[in-house]
Write a structure and sequence with these properties.
- The structure is a single chain.
- By secondary structure, this protein is an alpha/beta fold.
- It has a domain of 83 residues: Alpha-Beta Complex (Ribosomal Protein L13p, Chain: A), CATH 3.90.1180.
- The strands form 2 sheets. The protein has a 4-stranded parallel β-sheet with strand order 5-2-1-6, with helices on one face. Strands 3-4 form a two-stranded antiparallel sheet.
- Strand 3 and strand 4 form a beta hairpin.
- The longest helix is centred in the N-terminal third of the chain and has 13 residues.
Amino acid sequence: MKTIMPKQIKGNDRKWFIVDAEGQTLGRMATQIAAILKGKNKPTFAPHVDNGDYVVVINADKFKVTGKKMTDKKYYRHTGFLWGLKEISLEDLLEKKPLKAIEFAVSWMLPKNKLRKQMISRLKLFTGTEHTFTAQKPEVIKL
């Protein structure tokens, strides 16, 4: 039996999915979104080929976290200067940039190679229930 090597999807062959983040746990939702972006839900999955689908997340600022993660979870970045390590809690991040928490969670679950940028570009986040991708006829999936 021969091993099948899938080809890269071209053009409009990718599906569109809608995920409602309201009331969903951040980490559990992010793992399922990352699997769709990678293409793990398809029978032709290969880790070296980017055959994932588009994911539109509505109500992206209304997710929940368990425990004391709102105050205890920290996000770090470095400015590049000496002593330039900056930290921000999840609570403060949601006040300033409410969409970044889901983007960070999903991005860190994608492969750490050149495919990550392509995969994360197919993640579309919206704070309300309205989105601009109705022409693509996305399927609503329940997580």
